[in-house]
Design goal:
Layout lengths: L1 E6 L1 H4 L18 H11 L5 E4 L7 H12 L6 E5 L2 H5 L5 H18 L2 E5 L12 H25 L2 E3 L21 H17 L18 H26 L1
Helix pairs in contact: 2-7, 3-5, 5-6
Amino acid sequence: MRLLTLGDSLTQGVGDPTPGRAGFSGQLDGWVTHLSQALQDSGRTVAVTNLAVSGAQASHVVSTQLPQALLTVADVATIIIGVNDLCRPGFDIASFAQNYGATLVALTAVSPVVLSATIHEFDEPFPVPSGLRQKLHSNTEAANEVIRTICAQRKVLVVDMANSNQMGPNVRSVDLLHPNRYGHQLIAAEVLTVLHAAGHFCDASMTPPQPMRRGVSDLAHVAWVGTYMQRVVAGRIRQSHS
C-alpha cells in the first residue's frame, strides 16, 4: 500500500518526536507514522512518501512538493495545508483557492483516493488582540469553505478538523500550536475513520489513543520551540496585525 502525503509541519510530524530521539533535529513520528503503523498491523506492507515541510504554504506545495508527487504512484494521497497561509499578512483567499485546487487536481491524477482536512482554530491558546483573532477566524472560515467546496467538486475525502476536539489543550505540544503524540494519534484515528466510511481499509484498526503524561516528549520538543516557534510563528502573528 503506497501512501503519499503533502503539507506542512502537521504532516511532517512536528510535536511528536520519536521516543528516544532528541527534539526537532531528531526523528519525528506524527499522524502519518501512526496511520501507516495501523495499516501495517492489518497485514499490509506500507510504503510512505512524506513530502510535507514545516512552514509550507499552499503555494509551496504547488511549486516544490507537487513536482515530486507527480513522479509517485499512490494508493492514497493526502494534503493538509492552510495554517501558514493564514498566519501571513495579506492572506489572499483567491490565491489560496487557486493553489489548493491545483493541488487536488494533480493528486487525483496520481492516486485513486485523495484525502484532505479543514483547518482548526489554531490561534486559541495565544494571547493575541481581539481584532487579530477575529481576522484569523474570518480567514479560517473562508479557507474552510474553499476546502469543503473544492473537495466536494473533486470527490476528495475530508477530515473535519474544524469541528472536532482533536486540538484541545490535552492534545497540544508545549509549543501550543502542534499536536503532541496523543494529538497525532487522534488525527491518525480520524483519518482512518474517514477512510473506513468511504469503504477503504475497513479491516485496519487503531487502539484507542490515551492522553499522555507531560514530561519526556515535551522535553524532546523544547529545542524546536526555542529555535522556531518564538522567532518565526509569533513574528508572523505580529506582522499580520500590523
